[in-house]
Queue: 3 jobs
Job 1
Amino acid sequence: MIEFRRLSDDDPVLAYSPLLRAARLTLEYVEDNGAISLTNTKAFKRVFVHWAAEHFDWPGRGYDDLFRYKKVLNEYDFTPLELVHFLLIRLKLGHHNKGAFRLTQRGKEFGRSPSQLFIEMIPYYLLQIDHSSYSRLDDAPIGNWDVWLNVMNVEIDQGATEKQVYGAFYGEGPDWDNSGWREMAAFSSCVLRPLEWAGLIVEQEDTLDGRVDRHCFKTPLWRAALRLDTDDQLEPVLRH
């Protein structure tokens, strides 16, 4: 079973979610500046895409990174913004009208309540979205979120490498430098990346003997927001 706890609006752990932050910034932008102009294909126009690139502070996709090889950005060049746009429309927090993105009354209310926005958006994003559609390979790993989250709840409680996490589900043979790289890539794109974008895990890179290993750790948001069947298997958190 997966249950998301409702947190208070001022709970500092909500700051760990890049996706929540980006959605809040978008809602606040419309409240403060009016509707966001759309292209003929109903994407955000570049002026807002550039604003989002500067303000979202997205992990691994900072402003300088995004503009390193481009002079201008379209919405499809900045996947997190494309995702936020999709989610706000799908959850009826915004809508398209007369060539612009505008907030619904629901969107205005949720924009003022981070906890309400989190509980509405993050479970939907994790559990309902086809994450393989955002994968370059269009592959999806075998499994489901109930199994992935409950096993990872124990496996990464003290941190684990990406290979160790993958191995807990599918065996330790596949790796990035052998024929199992496609399976590793699918798991990374469809499980680990959504968890990182939701703010429930953080990944850190370590280099040893020329090899780069990615380590996965729970964020305080995981511990505060998730209630899982395997919680009783965890070591008590030591407080000093």
Job 2
Amino acid sequence: MKQASVGAAVAIAALVGGAEMASAQAFSLGEVYVKGFGGATWPSSLDSTLTENGTQIALPSFDHDTGYTLGAAVGAAVTPNLSTEIEYAYRNADFTVTDRGEGDQADGDTSARAFMFNALYMFDGMGATGVVQPYLGGGIGGANVEMSAGGQDFDAETLLAYQLIGGVDYELNPKVSLYAEGRWFQTKSGDFDGPDDESFDGKFETFDLLVGMRYAF
């Protein structure tokens, strides 16, 4: 009986140890990488209502020009096809704002700083050498958005943000690759607060075309 108990204990210990090892392997991170990117951004137009202490004072329409996006990310492979990363991106674009009621116009710019958590699925390599990899992904995080016009700044802090990503990666060597991608980025609608208790409600939405470089350690 004693020998049977000892044998059972050894078997249980082996099973527990094997389960712990499998769990560690399942959740261990593979190669770690860093990447940088930049490109063009096209913010959507925005119609809103400017209020002062809750009273309507103007009906601004923001018409954005083409702007730019710059960013960087650090990530790691969870599986050979799935990666997760933390990203910082800065977007900036000029605009013309028109009062739909009075017709007055002014020039300004919008800037957005976003921290995002992304997940990317890398499809298997294409071609004879497999160096071309399409990928899809998405992200969620927070963004601070500032719109400035006529010497006045309107800020919306820590808006919920989300994005969809699609692109193609080209491997130059086992450590370095180049990529091109398109993104749809949007924040949740929020209050843009300015001077003298003025504010308006709106969201920031863009489409981006980006190129970048990825370095794996």
Job 3
Amino acid sequence: MMQPKMTKRHPINVADLRRGLGQRRIVEIDYLFDPVEVVSSRTTADPVTGSVVIESIERGVSIVGSVSFSWEGECRRCLDLVNGRSRVDIDEIFQSPAPADSDIIELTDNTLDLVPVVHDAIALALPLVPLCRADCQGPDPDRYPTKSAEQIEAERASERGQDPRWASLDELTFGE
């Protein structure tokens, strides 16, 4: 994975917050990453923006907030360019020492680096296979028609035929 670039990269010192439980600080996010790509979508060159609240908790700090980012990709049906803007929530805990086998991030020297947290959040929020619009029929709808999951399952069931061992279940009726 490529190292992310950011417009304002500096560790955030939280020593002053940790002097008292419940103390808070709002931090504005304005990072510029190299493109993050997942299957058929990727982030654009626009910066990732948002804000988080850092709050002092026992043995560490919690980070809660959200970031917004722009993305683009190819429609999974027609392959036209699709773009959008997404918002993803950030909710992490940094603790010293971090318990083994947990999702808690180690807090070292009372400093935070939010870049990996934001990078991972946007990578997980990218659409895997974007769709330009819900009724997109693709490049050749007559040759490759789209079907709903229910239509596909009904076709498969009729092709398979019914297992005679289950036929008696068709006669059951439930509360009328």
